[in-house]
């Protein structure tokens, strides 16, 4: 069992306030407005996880990257790297490797999440080691094999109110159709992810445009028909319940590019003759176009900025993305986003949520932008900063500068479904710590702090992502 004081501050007076705050939100539902859980888990009502490795190791790049840093080859973890070396297929052997290196996760968020998952989901309080690896494997497998251990049942057990997936811009959402046509009452909603059609210099961009053309029955041969297809498919996503879009970019540069120039860039992309500089201009122009679409259709625009993806090019070419080889880079927002915000920053129907891996921008740029423009909200600590220390830095830099209600609270941004409750629990306890500190220093009065705690726990996320229809009355904020 998790100790009631886990993650809470050591000062007795502050801890008591923090515990009271945490307890006030403990039973509020989890809202998961952004993440990467596969909708197939919920489309099949009888879906069962195969084994502990397929559940806890292979889908989680947080887990994989630490093992890789210790010299463990991906093929030894069951990941095909197409390097001619045999791929380990025995999940028990992979689990043993993981257990032998579990000490490497000490004091990391990944280690905390897995520890909490084992305790809360599998009732395993014993620390994973090389010696008990197989016994714990068997205990997990036994639970996975039970009839009720399905994603749909876990969705209810975790008290999730709504969960949004991340779906390619050309996705025809068959899994979501299957969920909608079933008699299940869970809320699994798609999110329109535009990366594959916006990043014009990617090797498979032409194929992605063809896929979008097929999905929309619109022949895409010009920039104008490209925009028509995007608008059409966004409308379809919205019909399927989507309330948001997403785009990941290295730079936040936006630009109002003329239609004639965008057409020329588009044609160069089709011919696979576009330069790096031209591709950057196309992406900058598309940021403004996507903002325009959001102002028109009301879908919230998420922008994830500052991740240099697939840094290990050899790994990407042989094994694909999302294996841990992504890294933060410095970014700026104020000047790069000015063209976009000049047009839509004060638009009543435009809403944009900004995420960054560059913490230096919290107080310098992001919080000031969010505390001025009504359309801008600040997303929670993301990726490398989704941990207790990162959350504390976020509170100190972003909320002190921009205010609590210029943020969106928390989202778990995970592929690992079972880690969702643990991630939310860390956030709620970190929020309680921060608010308790404000109370004991007489910065915030106690009668206000419980409403602030509810906002951080789930209320802000329900509101910012237009998901309040899924929120019980007790979870809503003003």
Which key terms come to mind for this protein?
478 residues, alpha/beta, TIM Barrel, uronate isomerase, domain 2, chain A, 20 helices, globular
The name of the CATH superfamily of the largest domain reads Metal-dependent hydrolases
Note the gap between the termini: 35 Å
Q: What's the level 1 CATH class of the largest domain?
A: Alpha Beta
What portion of the residues fall into strands of 2 or more residues? Answer: 5-15%
Descriptive account of the structure:
- The chain is of the alpha/beta class and 478 residues long.
- It is 48% helix and 8% strand.
- It contains 20 helices and eleven strands.
- The protein has helices at residues 12-25, 40-43, 52-56, 61-69, 91-100, 109-122, 133-144, 151-157, 174-181, 195-198, 205-216, 223-239, 259-270, 276-297, 313-319, 338-344, 361-370, 388-402, 420-440, 446-464; strands spanning 30-32, 160-164, 167-168, 188-189, 192-193, 244-249, 300-305, 307-308, 327-328, 352-356, 376-378.
- The strands form three sheets. It has a six-stranded parallel beta sheet with strand order 3-5-6-7-10-11. Strands 1-2-4 form a three-stranded parallel beta sheet. It has a two-stranded antiparallel sheet with strand order 8-9.
- Strand 10 (352-356), helix 17 (361-370) and strand 11 (376-378) form a beta-alpha-beta unit.
- Helix 1 (12-25) packs across helix 20 (446-464) and helix 19 (420-440) runs antiparallel to helix 20.
- The longest helix is centred in the middle third of the chain and has 22 residues, at 276-297.
- The chain is globular and about 65 Å long.
């Amino acid at each position: 069992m998790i100790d009631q004081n886990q993650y809470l501050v050591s000062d007795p007076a502050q801890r008591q306030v923090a515990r009271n705050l945490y307890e006030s939100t403990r039973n509020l539902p989890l809202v998961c407005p952004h993440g990467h859980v596969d909708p197939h888990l919920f489309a099949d009502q009888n879906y069962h996880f195969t084994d502990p490795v397929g559940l806890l190791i292979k889908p989680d790049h947080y887990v994989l990257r630490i093992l890789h840093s210790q010299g463990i080859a991906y093929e030894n973890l069951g990941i095909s790297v197409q390097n001619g070396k045999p791929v380990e297929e025995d999940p028990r052997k992979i689990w043993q490797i993981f257990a032998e290196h579990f000490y490497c996760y000490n004091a990391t968020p990944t280690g905390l999440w897995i520890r909490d998952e084992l305790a809360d989901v599998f009732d395993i309080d014993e620390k994973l080691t090389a010696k008990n690896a197989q016994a714990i494997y068997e205990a997990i497998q036994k639970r996975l094999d039970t009839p009720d251990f399905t994603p749909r049942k876990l969705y209810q057990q975790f008290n999730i109110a709504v969960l949004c997936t991340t779906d390619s811009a050309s996705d025809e959402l068959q899994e979501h159709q299957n969920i909608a046509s079933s008699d299940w009452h869970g809320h699994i909603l798609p999110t329109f992810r535009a990366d594959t059609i916006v990043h014009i210099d990617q090797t498979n961009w032409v194929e992605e445009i063809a896929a979008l053309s097929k999905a929309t029955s619109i022949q895409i041969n010009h920039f104008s028909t490209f925009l028509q297809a995007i608008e059409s498919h966004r409308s379809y996503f919205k019909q399927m319940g989507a309330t948001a879009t997403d785009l990941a970019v290295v730079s936040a540069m936006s630009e109002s590019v003329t239609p004639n120039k965008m057409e020329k860039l588009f044609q160069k992309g089709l011919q696979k003759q576009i330069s790096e500089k031209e591709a950057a201009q196309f992406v900058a122009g598309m940021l403004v176009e996507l903002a325009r679409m959001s102002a028109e259709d009301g879908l919230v625009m998420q922008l994830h900025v500052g991740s240099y993806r697939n840094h290990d090019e050899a790994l990407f070419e042989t094994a694909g993305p999302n294996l841990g080889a992504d890294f933060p880079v410095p970014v700026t927002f104020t000047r790069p986003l000015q063209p976009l915000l000049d047009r839509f920053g004060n638009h009543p129907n435009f809403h944009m949520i900004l995420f960054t891996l560059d913490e230096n921008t919290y107080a310098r740029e992001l919080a000031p932008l969010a505390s001025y423009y009504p359309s801008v909200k600040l997303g929670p600590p993301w990726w490398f900063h989704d941990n207790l220390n990162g959350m504390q830095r976020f509170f100190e830099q972003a909320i002190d500068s921009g205010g609590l209600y210029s943020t969106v609270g928390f989202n778990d941004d995970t592929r690992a479904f079972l880690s969702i409750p643990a991630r939310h629990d860390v956030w709620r306890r970190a929020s309680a710590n921060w608010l308790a500190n404000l109370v004991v220093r007489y910065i915030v009065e106690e009668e206000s702090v419980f409403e602030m705690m509810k906002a951080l726990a789930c209320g802000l996320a329900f509101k910012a992502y237009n998901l309040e229809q899924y929120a019980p009355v007790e979870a809503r904020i003003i």
